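Usage

Read records sequentially. Each one opens with the input sequence:
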Amino acid sequence: MANLTFRYGAMNSGKSTALMQVAHNYEEKNMKVIVLKPVIDTKGNDKLVSRVGIMRKVDYLVSDGNSIIKLLKDKLYDTSCILVDEAQFLTEKHVDELHFICKELEIPVICYGLRSDFKTNSFPGSRRLFELADKLEELTTICACGKKAKFNARVINGKYVFEGEQVAIDEVDDVYYESLCGKCYIEKVHNFVKQKRLKKH
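and closes with the structure output:
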């Protein structure tokens, strides 16, 4: 039976790179893959962009109002695998549809994304994937201190922030993210927030 797999990790854990490697492995064997990305991820526009410098054009950009089943309806009969980048930005309905495709059409689906946002709260897509996925695989990276990084700190204009919308795309409008272990996250982000609040009083 085909599996729905969620490969998750902090920023800089090589998710997009891993997806492109999997796509290459299938295509090298003359097998068809479909690569999806939520349209809200404007980094690279219609391309996957890896920090190691490789890119790949996606087959479909998915918006909140799209039905993935309708989007792919004429493309699934000879598809060997569906790959999804930035899966945290999927809606719960999208994940339900991917689960349906996987189980009813026997097409493996592999999703890559973040577990949580810069406030450590889960994304709707990630949460639903944790509920439905047959396989959960963590991709790891390291914090500057050398420990395993699990959290994503948002940095704007060189300063840590703990307020704002859940979605702000990396490397757009002076936003970037730093992968941190739990201890460094508390020390850098929460101590910054605490100091900021103290200055207001």
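Summary fields computed downstream for this record:
- The chain is about 30% helix and 25% strand.
- The chain has a mean pLDDT of 89.
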